[in-house]
Amino acid sequence: MDDTVAQKIVVEKNSPRGTHFRRAGPRQKVYFESEEVHACIVTCGGLCPGLNTVIREIVCGLYHMYGVHKVLGIEGGYRGFYARNTIPLTPKVVNDIHKRGGTILGTSRGGQDTSKIVDSIQDRGINQVYIIGGDGTQKGASVIFEEIRRRGLKVAVAGIPKTIDNDIPIIDKSFGFDTAVEEAQRAISAGHIESESFENGIGLVKLMGRYSGFIAMYATLASRDVDCCLIPESPFYLEGPGGLFEFIEKRLKENGHMVIVIAEGAGQELVSESLRTTDQQDASGNKLLQDVGLCISQKIKDHFKRKKMVINLKYIDPTYMIRAVPSNASDNVYCTLLAQSVIHGTMAGYTGFIGGPVNGRHAYIPFHRVLVEKQNKVVITDRMWARLLSSTHQPSFMDHKDVMEDDTEKVGQTLQVNGKSHLGTTTAKARDTESIEEPSKPI
Ligand SMILES: Nc1ncnc2c1ncn2[C@@H]1O[C@H](COP(=O)(O)OP(=O)(O)OP(=O)(O)O)[C@@H](O)[C@H]1O
Ligand SMILES: O=P(O)(O)OC[C@H]1O[C@](O)(CO)[C@@H](O)[C@@H]1O
Ligand SMILES: [Mg+2]
């Protein structure tokens, strides 16, 4: 129970050693008696491969490891607590669900009414709440946790981070991400085959990724058929020297065909004003994006028409196909470890935390730590993006000045986080200090 996991494992000379989290795993002292546990599981936000596997493993883990037999599934996301039915979950009910995509519980956006949710938890006598969802869901979980504390209830709240966008900070990677990258290969491959078969063929594939381009970046690196990858973190331009049109022309002249991968959140500033719906949001308040793939396709076609150069562009939008599939083998293993480590935490009486791998070791991360960190994004001055640029040979769309400015900003942010938020002291004094971030203590 004293083991900790370091958030930073690469430590630069003279820099603070940083934050540590409690290592996940079974504890000798168990807080809850098996017979008294009444657990519930809810899934919120968009779909993600592996949701059913996590549900299955929570039910089976509670049942087989701790002899807990009362587990309820909440239907339809947060609003299901007060507006929908519940499903009793047993190992028999969930036995085969990991072979299916989606979530057997259903999911939703919006409808987060904390007071009604906690009333429902209280009325049903629930004392363990497992909440599976992305960044929005974990914000909601944190508010539920606070309300439970305010009412003085003995209820453990645990978050299980989910999102194919991989935008949750601190954890190494979210479940379902690998499966989504794997599924994206099929779309890229189709784009490649189509483009190879026509004169000056261009395969344009749009992949999910609202604010973070991880799926596009990893799918590009995995495929080797992609000539250019466009992500939200790396602004690009179309016209003139160093622009996208110039690169497309060069590639077509060299190879006769090319493949472009674009993340859905990339190049939003290029989407024409008339198409842009700046103020439209989904039920959770996430900004609705325009189809950048369609827009860029049209702009590429118009450009080469003006130049009187024949091109054949095929636009492929596999959007929901990459997240509606069942999880692959490696995600299934990941989901199992995640479910088991979170169960161990709640059974030991911890609350107000998410479970997740940090530098390869599963840990308990307090909600407040996840909420203060910025969304996980591709850092375009980091090694991974540089590796991608070396693999595709696409333009970086950045000049030297941009790189230097970006780097300075990053150093500033890191020092501020380590110097102020964690350690509450100046950076100089903090150098040899480390802090341990505890989930809330056994209730
Ligand atoms: N700041 C917040 N406070 C309380 N509840 C929130 C907050 N943001 C989102 N929620 C609730 O969390 C649920 C899921 O949020 P959202 O639709 O943003 O998906 P998500 O969990 O971020 O997953 P993903 O983005 O991967 O699909 C919704 O019911 C929403 O109302
Ligand atoms: O259309 P929906 O269901 O709101 O989901 C779309 C969003 O969900 C995500 O897959 C995140 O879960 C994003 O990549 C995407 O923008
Ligand atoms: Mg989200």
UniProtKB/TrEMBL annotation:
Region (Disordered): 417-443
The protein's name in its UniProt record: ATP-dependent 6-phosphofructokinase
Enzyme class of the recorded protein, top EC level: transferase
Gene Ontology terms: biological process: fructose 6-phosphate metabolic process
Coiled coil region boundaries: none
GO molecular function list: 6-phosphofructokinase activity; ATP binding; metal ion binding
Sorted UniProt keywords: Allosteric enzyme, ATP-binding, Cytoplasm, Glycolysis, Kinase, Magnesium, Metal-binding, Nucleotide-binding, Transferase
Biased composition (Basic and acidic residues): 429-443
Family: Belongs to the phosphofructokinase type A (PFKA) family. PPi-dependent PFK group II subfamily. Atypical ATP-dependent clade 'X' sub-subfamily.
HAMAP family: Phosphofructokinase_II_X
Broad class of where this protein is predominantly found: cytoplasm
